Amino acid sequence: MVKEVRNLMNEVVKNILERRSWRSYEDRQISDQELDTILQCGLWAPSAMNQQSWHFTVVQNKERIAELTKGCQKMMDTDRDPFYGAPTLVVVTAKADCIAPQQDGSLAIENMMLAASSLGIGSCWINCLARFLTTEDGKAFAEKVGIPAGYVGVSCLILGYPQGERPEPKERAQGTVNFVK
Amino acid sequence: MVKEVRNLMNEVVKNILERRSWRSYEDRQISDQELDTILQCGLWAPSAMNQQSWHFTVVQNKERIAELTKGCQKMMDTDRDPFYGAPTLVVVTAKADCIAPQQDGSLAIENMMLAASSLGIGSCWINCLARFLTTEDGKAFAEKVGIPAGYVGVSCLILGYPQGERPEPKERAQGTVNFVK
Fold first, then answer.
1. Is the pLDDT of residue A6 over 90?
2. Which end of chain B is more exposed for a tag (fewer CB within 10 A), N or C?
3. Which of helix, strand or coil describes residue A34?
4. pLDDT at position B33, please?
5. Could A11 and B10 be called an inter-chain contact, meaning their C-beta atoms sit closer than 8 Å?
6. Which residues share a beta bridge with B92?
7. Residue of B nearest to A179 (CA)
8. Is B79 in contact with B87 (CB distance < 8 Å)?
9. Per-residue pLDDT tens over the stretch A103-130
């Protein structure tokens, strides 16, 4: 098993270990500067053969968020808010015919989650949006907001000032690291 | 377009923006403590529904690395070293029947790359290994080193002390962020 991290703690490692997925947000919007910093960090992720296959669609307009909410709720037959009231959505898509679109997009999202956490901003990976974009409603939405043709959904990153109690860390699965002799 | 990041720089953002993919390494091995810190950071990535579908196989044994090198070279019909002489390989696989194995594994790898960078350790995502694991040679290797059945290759992360000149940042693609009105 992996030993406890004791002596090599630094701001980067600490931020990785302390990042949590937030599912409750304040109403007020994050600042443009915070958003730009987070997006920049996403754009500086590595990507397969440097293809940078990602595309980010930033949605802060409440009407557009409501449309996405309604679309995902209809798809999943639920009235739960899939975006947990977050004021900013970053819909991450990636060019389907690149080498590793899902992986490129995921690396960008992790950078954004970590940058957000370092700025005191909560985030969560919302998986249902990738599936929504494969539905007729989702395709219509994609066209309306200018998601380029030939791009597939990776995920939706929600961002906002976190609200309520800090989530406890979830236990780590066991047996996930094997040291080859 | 995304504006320049000026005022919100912190250690985490700086580390994200300054991480580079390294393709030249010193011979000497990284320390166990550095390795453990990096692996821990991988294990603390988020994952779809907290399934933590990843599995890391750490390979430092030179004979095993030589076997993997030979296997990948044969597959790609080349004599180029796919692992750039790195002394540590972390083969990341993920449980195929989970919600998002490729995405979970990618998030873990990005955490490890960023943690490595913060510790002065170079890293690079080596894509060919995922494909190698689908070949007969790859399957035999997976069984030999104990990669669990039912797991798919995500990628191979190489780690080591970087050597030579720090790679210049690659230009970012344009038109990758759209702010919805």
1. no
2. C
3. helix
4. 95
5. yes
6. B56, B155
7. B58
8. no
9. 999 999 999 999 999 999 999 999 999 9
Residue-wise pLDDT tens digits, B43-91: 999 999 999 999 999 999 999 999 999 999 999 999 999 999 999 999 9
Q: 């929600």: which residue's tokens?
A: A158
Indicate whether B116 pLDDT > 80.
yes
- Cα distance from B104 to chain A (closest Cα, Å)? 8
What are residue B25's DSSP bridge partners? B162
3-state secondary structure of B26: coil
Tokens read off for B87: 């002394």
What number is the ipTM of this complex? 0.95
Q: How far is B59 from chain A (nearest CA, A)?
A: 5
Query: In terms of DSSP bridges, do strands A54-59 and B177-180 run parallel, antiparallel, or are they unpaired?
Result: parallel
CA–CA separation, A141 and B79 (whole Å): 48
Closest CA to A110 of A135, A137, A90, A132: A90
Which residues of chain B are within 8 Å of residue A66 when distances are taken between CB atoms? none
Contacts of A108 by beta carbon, 8 Å cutoff, 6+ apart: A42, A43, A45, A47, A54, A56, A92
What token pair was written down for A1?
Answer: 């098993």
Strand duo A54-59 + A177-180: pairing: unpaired
Q: Which of B1, B2, B11, B90 to mutate to test the interface with A (most CBs of A within 10 A)?
A: B2
> What is the C-alpha R_g of chain A?
17
Residues B147 and B48 sit within 8 Å (Cβ to Cβ) = no
- Give the C-alpha distances (Å, rounded to integers) separating B174 from A47, A91, A93, B99, B124: 15, 17, 15, 32, 24
CA distances from A149 to A74, A140, A152 (A): 24, 11, 9
- CA of B119 to nearest chain A CA: how many angstroms apart? 8
Q: Are A157 and A93 in contact (CB under 8 A)?
A: no
